[in-house]
Structure formats: structure tokens, C-alpha cells
Amino acid sequence: MTAPTFDLTDHVIDGERRAGSGERIDVTNPATGEVIASIPAGTVQDVDDAVTAARRAFGSWSQVPVSERAAVVQRISEGILARRDEIAATISAEMGSPIGFATAVQASLPAFTAAGTAALAETFPWSEEIGNSLVVREPIGVVGAITPWNYPLHQIVAKVAPALLAGNTVVLKPSEVAPLSAGILAEIVENAGLPAGVFNIVHGTGQVVGEAISGHPDIDMVSFTGSTAAGKKVSISAAESVKRVALELGGKSACVVLPDADFAKAAKLGLGNGWINGGQTCTAWTRMLVPADRHEEMLGLLREAAAKYTVGDPAEASTRIGPMSSVNQQDKVNSYIKLGVEEGATVAFGGPDAAGELPSGGAYVQPTIFGGVTRDMRIAQEEIFGPVLSVMPYTDLDDAAEIANSTVYGLAGAVFAADTDSGVAFAKRMRTGQVDVNGGSFNPVAPFGGYGQSGNGRELGRFGLEEFCEIKSIQR
Fold this sequence. Notes:
Blueprint: E1 11-13, E2 16-18, E3 24-28, E4 35-40, H1 44-61, H2 66-82, H3 84-95, H4 99-106, H5 109-119, E5 127-130, E6 133-139, E7 142-146, H6 154-166, E8 169-173, H7 180-191, E9 199-201, H8 206-215, E10 221-225, H9 228-239, E11 244-248, E12 254-257, H10 263-274, E13 287-291, H11 295-306, H12 327-342, E14 346-349, E15 368-371, H13 378-381, E16 388-394, H14 397-404, E17 413-416, H15 420-427, E18 436-437, E19 455-456, H16 461-466, E20 469-475
Parallel strand pairs: 7-8, 7-10, 8-9, 10-11, 12-13, 12-17, 13-16, 15-16, 17-18
Antiparallel strand pairs: 1-2, 3-4, 5-6, 6-20, 11-19, 14-15
Helix pairs in contact: 1-8, 2-5, 2-6, 2-7, 3-4, 5-6, 8-9, 10-11
């Protein structure tokens, strides 16, 4: 495996790497507290330079035949796969994802997403006849992409690949918490033959670089993934120039276990998805809804499953939960664990008193399962973004549907049932963007996005590509 060097940290503007002339932002390994790199703290001027380059490159890139743009995106996919192990080690070091998960998901899924996007070029309806109109799909222009730290490379590729295929140019702000994999991608993009100025990176904070991107009059669209609070600010800033905004925000997803379901399977898969990536996943099933008369039975099954989750060094293959991405995230999750106790939930596993069992040093938290959680508790309403599962009893299916739909979010969810048909029937009652029935696997070409305050627009596959297109009608 190629060891990561953490040296691809500059801005990339108009095909050139720029170290920046101002302050630097440290990148810290959350498992050790060690500073492993630093990135430039970008400025409004840096954003303006990147937008100017992207605007200049748009004229020629938008006219490149779709087949050639698809070939570039395919080469990006191949470049990611070729450097998968290096990318996985980098992501593990910058945000704490266990190396097994970082390899299988963090570094592999972006390659599959890029390849799937490239494959759309031949079947996507770039033009169609409706009556006497020729309806064509054209690129929007300059896209500003603002991405999070929890899946740092995949969330970039999920935006950049379709944006490029559609003929747009991009100005990217990766998360300052986990920016290093973006530097590797910049090198891959360059080697894939993308012209200078088509893909630009400006590092920095959301308060400076993020706001400059969302408010820039020469950016035609902003695609943002992050917290709901930050997404609201992006929308407000973007409104001044009436640019298109696509938001993928928070979640508080419900895993509903119907009375006739396989409870052992639901416990295993439900906990696994609730604690995936240390619970730092917007689609994590953080609420498990179970029949009231089988609540204690489910808690017992969950305790057995939870005992198999090793918390430790993310570089070790046996680790299933690494540190939180930062000390700030560690403090946030710990505060919610304490709050759950104060609100009267029952600690079924872990909890604040078990924190002494954690590895010394690093931003670790104690994975926790709460029982007897009611819908009015904050731990049942607010996104914790850590390995904390709330088990909530329900009386009947109508009550279960009401509880499942009782938050401001609607990003994902799950149903476990004796048969697929009854699971799908209940899934249709859930106000959420995607639902897995009996452990249905993630589909990287199906539309991904949320209802309510989980955002708007869709990513991935054909629906994700449509987000980056304008539609023109030509009457003849």
C-alpha cells in the first residue's frame, strides 16, 4: 500500500497549485491529536480568482462532446481505484474512519459513483421531442460545491462527476476538517485530462470561503452537503443572485421493526446502520421503533450485537468504531449522551459511566443505546452524529408511522417486516427520501436526497445528473 504523504494541500485554481498568502488551518488526526498537515485559509479573493477561471473555462468545456466528457469522468473513476489504498489511509487519518470501512466504502464508492455517472452519457435524454418543441438539457454554468467531512471524497465526487458530465465547471470547497483526500482527487483529475480551470479547489472555512461561494454573483448553482443550520445560511446567501441551490442536509432516520419481523436480523442490521462510520452518517438509522410489548426483547438483542463493536485505533483492521472526527464532535456527542440520561431514557448499553473503557487519547466516545425513548426527547429529535441509538416503543402501526414522521427531517429510513410487500406498504407511509426494506442494499444510481429539513434536490444516477442541467424549449 502507498503510504499517504499529506502534501497535496494547496488551492487549485486555473490548473495551478497555490499555497495561499495568509493563515493556515491545521488538519488533525482525531485518533492521536497529532497535526498531520495544514491547508491555506482561503480568502474572498481566492474564491473570486477560482470563479473567474471557471467562468473562462466554461465556454470551451461546455462545448466538448458528451462522449469525451464521459471519458474524462471514467478516467477519474479509474484513477480513484488505482489509488484506493492511499485514499483510504488518508481519509482514516484525517477524520478517523476505520481502515476497513475507509477502504471498502470511503475510497471505493466514489469510483463506482463516477463510473456510473459516466455510463449515463449514452442513455440520458440530452434532448427530446415534445409536440413542436425540441427540449434540450444544457449545463447550468459554474457550480459551487461545498462538501462535508464525514464522507469527504464521496460527497465531492457525487457532485463533481455529474457536474462535469453535464458540461459545467466547478469551484469546490472541501471541509477544512478533512480536506486531504480532495488534494489527491485534484491530481487524479489533472491526470484524467481535464482542462485547466474546469475543476478548482479553494480551501478554507465556511464562514469565509463557503459564504463567498454561495453568494458569488458569477456562480450559477451551489450544491451543498452539511448541517441543516449551515444549509439555511447557504440558501439565504444564494437568494441574492437567485442561483439554483441543491441541499443534502441532516437526518434523524427511523428504523421501524414491524411486529412480525425477524427481530434478530433487525437488531444486527439496525445497529450496524445506526453506528455506521461511527454514527457520523446523515442517513444513519438513529431511531429504532419497536412494538411496546417487545421493547425489552429488542434491547437484549441489541446489547448482544453491540458487544461485538470494537472501539479503537482506526488503523487497526479489527476496529469497527474509531474516534469522532474532531474533539468538537466528541464533545457534542458526549453532551447528547448525558442529555439522554437527564431526559429519563434508560441506558441499555454504554452511557456516560462506561466512558472509562475507551482508548486513552483521541476523540473517542462510548457507543450508547438508549431504551424507553419518547418522541418529545431531544435525543429523539436532534441529529447527534455519533454512535447513539434511541429505541422507541410504539403501540400500533399508526403510532409507529406518526413517530417515524415526527421530526423535521426526512432523509432515510428502514422497515423490517415478515415479507417485502408489507414492508414496502409501510415504507410508503414514511415521509423520507429513501427507505431500505429488510436490509435492502444501497443503490449508487438511485436518487438520493431528502424531504423537509433534510434538503431538496437529488444526487446520484440520472436524477443527480438532472440537477446540474438547465432545460430549454425550442419551438419549431
